[in-house]
Amino acid sequence: MTRRCFVRSMTAGGAALALGQGALQAGVTPPDFASAAKTLSEHRIVRMEARQLQDRYPRFVGKNSHLGAVGWGGGYQVRRVITDQGASGWGMSHVKDDVVAPLIGRSVPNLYDMEQGVSDEARAIEIPLHDLVGNILGKPVYALLGSQGPTSVPIYSGAVYFDDLEPENQPRGVEGVLASCQQDHDVGYRAFKLKIGRGFKWMPKAEGIQRDIDVTRAVRERFPECRILVDGNDGFTVEEFIAYLDGVRDCDVYWIEEPFLETRDDYLKLREFMRTIDCRALIADGESCPRHPPQPTEYGGYEVEFVDHLYALAAEKLVDVFLLDLGTLGYTRWRHLMPKLKAAGILASPHTWMWTPRPIYAAHLAAGLGDVAIVEGIPGKAAGIDYSAFTFANGDLQMPEAPGFGLGLEA
Ligand SMILES: [Mg+2]
User: How far away, in angstroms, is 24 Cα from ligand 1 center?
Assistant: First the structure.
């Protein structure tokens, strides 16, 4: 590792860990909870309106190790929640109207507690409710969460897929990936997560690993000042992944995500190899799980055993960052989990792919709770969303002082 790389790695890890001290960072101060609860008690929900939005990415997004091409962006439902005082909040909320209909007529503090977040019965509208409470109190969501993190939040582009293999009738090769990185660099990204694992099913094994290496090396060379994250989507064996990492040992990889199914033995082998080549990349895991529980657990759509396993790996320093999905765990459960991770010395980065409002929601968790290494960003926009309160430069999203999540929903 060169000195430049060493300093960068130390700064990245050190800055992230320093946020775990619970100190109030710059930005909007949290509300006084007692008077906030009194203000909320004056509001009763009288109406909810759902509508569909459609994201548009700046380019066609290709395959990852397991799945076919993503395409141009997904659709999703959002819901606006309106009170009898004329206040409103909105956000992603995918359930049908009849599921949330019983919440109409309820007072806001009946569904949202300043310390705890939303009640169990209000989870389906937890994002709109956080926005609503922020709007009523005139505070950004991150201030509701405690303003313990930075208001300048590092974001990486999570949209760099196997663009070398697209279009299928005329694959562009490594240049295709470089073009994607350049497009994201042009709008302010300074960190790229490269999908790897081409040999899992899209290319012959050895060729696929070599292409993963070539892509990583090309991105490092073209963007020497940027962070490189890599995500295998569990598409390697440990031996294959070690062969890949050996090929990029001088590329200062910042983050290794889901290289293979998380087992202690394989991570022990990987850590040992990382020691031999002085690789200080963070290991991030826990986005995908082998199965979902029939009923929500304390970890939402994740089994308790799965999260316990991640904790056990983290206790042995085999995993550094928990990636549980923003929606599968849930926003309120993330509020509860993050302080526990912080106390255990584990970093967090809620998985946000693939809808454009979700990085904003995750950035509020980062600014509010202060245990997030870097947020997964999604280039692109949905028609109907006003993102203009946010500025993005040199890889950092600047959190606005606007109330709620700071995203507008145009009429
Ligand atoms: Mg991933």
Answer: 30
